[in-house]
Write a structure and sequence with these properties.
- By secondary structure, the protein is an alpha/beta fold.
- 38% of the residues lie in helices and 22% in strands.
């Protein structure tokens, strides 16, 4: 049974058909990457899955439960966490406070318990703080826990955002371009961390521009073009697919390749 099952998903914005008839599944315990040229509809699909947009047509099933119509906070409580294309930390809060904010979705203490600082609320706050610190250590940014988020280098802010997603205890984490703005060394470190996330039993759905990251970490790759799914399979299969090569490099690019050769799409980083 797939962890996530997307069926005939479609979304239009005015005269723009952003996503049209997309169907795919995400198997538990795997790293699945969603790639495609700019404007292909990748982030729109993430926004549909996580409750930011509502689809015009289609179903999104998570563990056989429909996500359609659920608000983003309800999707997180079900076990799906995400990061964003543009970093969305609270710049005036400390690094630890940012991650704790993600963990609060698992809290049970109500408003009155928080106002009265009841023993149960204090215990819960201590547990939230401890879990936040665990996630920061996992992402190798715990040394910054007391610093304001806005003061961190860009790469470390990316790591804090992933730590905040992990603090929600997800079964599925949805990463939207986590390597954006990272140098080659930082990207290689990120690949190792994504693998470690999977080793923790968390399924990963990834959008990424960097083809070295995609091909190095993915179990399964899905390719979008103009809002439609055009290919899917193992990274090596997708890399050699003529339709994928044409989508990245232009009309006729697949035909121009030498017979039997797998044309290189790793340099087509503008996904």
């Amino acid at each position: 049974m797939p962890l996530l099952d997307v069926q005939d998903l479609s979304k239009r914005f005015g005269g723009l058909q952003a996503v049209e008839g997309v169907s795919f599944s995400v198997e538990p315990g795997r790293i699945t990457s969603l790639i495609g040229p700019n404007g292909a509809g990748k982030t729109t699909i993430f926004n549909l899955i996580t409750g930011i947009y509502r689809p015009d047509r289609g179903m999104i099933l998570y563990k056989e439960m429909s996500l359609v119509g659920r608000r983003p906070h309800a999707v997180v409580k079900l076990g799906i966490a995400r990061t964003f294309q543009g970093i969305r930390l609270f710049p005036g809060l400390t690094v630890r406070e940012n991650v704790m904010a993600g963990r609060h979705c698992r809290g049970k203490a109500g408003v009155f318990a928080a106002l009265l600082r009841s023993p149960g609320q204090r215990r819960e706050e201590s547990e939230i703080r401890s879990r936040a610190d665990d996630c920061l250590r996992f992402m190798h940014v715990d040394q910054h826990r007391y610093e304001l988020a806005r003061n961190l280098p860009y790469g470390d802010q990316r790591r804090v955002e992933v730590a905040r997603a992990l603090a929600t205890d997800p079964e599925l984490v949805v990463l939207d371009e986590p390597a954006a703005g990272l140098n080659e060394e930082e990207s290689a470190s990120l690949v190792a961390l994504i693998r470690q996330i999977r080793e923790q039993g968390i399924t990963v759905l990834l959008i990424e521009h960097d083809m070295k990251v995609v091909m190095g970490v993915s179990d399964h790759v899905l390719v979008l073009d103009n809002g439609r799914l055009i290919a899917g399979g193992r990274p090596d299969e997708v890399q050699a697919n003529p339709r994928v090569i044409e989508a990245y490099l232009g009309c006729g690019a697949g035909a121009a390749a030498a017979p039997g050769a797998a044309p290189d799409v790793e340099d087509a980083r503008d996904v």
